[in-house]
Amino acid sequence: MLSRLLKEHQVKQNERKELQERRRREAIAAATCLTESLVDHLNVGVAQAYVNQRKLDHEVKTLQVQASQFSKQTAQWISMVEGFNQALKEIGDVENWARSIEMDMRTIATALEMFFQRGQDQKNNPESYMDFIFNVLGENAWLYITATVMVMCFFGWLFRDSLQIENFHEKYVFVTGCDSGFGHLLCKKLDRKGFRVLAGCLTEKGADDLKRATGPYLKTVLLDVTSQESIQKTMEWT
Prior knowledge:
By secondary structure, the chain is mainly α. The chain folds into 3 domains: 1-124; 125-162; 172-236. The protein contains 7 helices and 3 strands, in the order H-H-H-H-E-H-E-H-E-H. Helix 6 (204-213) links the parallel strand 2 (196-201) and strand 3 (218-222). The mean pLDDT is 75.
């Protein structure tokens, strides 16, 4: 009887130990899982914080560059405003300047009317004609005459630059002395504008240098303008 009770007690003790051991292992496993989860969560947070820090550093650098550019642009604006103010100071009173121009134009118009009215009487007497001009224009006669000549030259210059050559891509320009100097520069400029250029060079080196500096529409030929034979060969070549 006692032996049986002892065995039952031992069996229960063993079962209790196994249950405690199983619970201990489960608790350890749960604690390990919890620890790993916490570590993973912390690692993700640290990685995200590192990425955010790098983004912040990049944004700070970008902001510094933009601030530097804005500072330079502001300095340029200030310089432009100061230059504009200086220009206004140099121009002076625009209204008075316009009135002065208007008075000068009226004086010129009056002088032209008087020229037209009295021109016939002054044709045969050049000296009195010049006296009449100076009497009308006063002490600023030479100023008005000079201004008129300058205006005429200006419009003549505009008219000259407005002239254009039609179909110049189909036209040929023959230039001599193209090894160096003015002829060399003229060939380059005409080639850039699209003309077909025939360049006469004295030496092969000059011709080769010009070919390397220009396009396919420029052709070179060896030409000595002091030699009739060279001129004849060039005429046959063209």
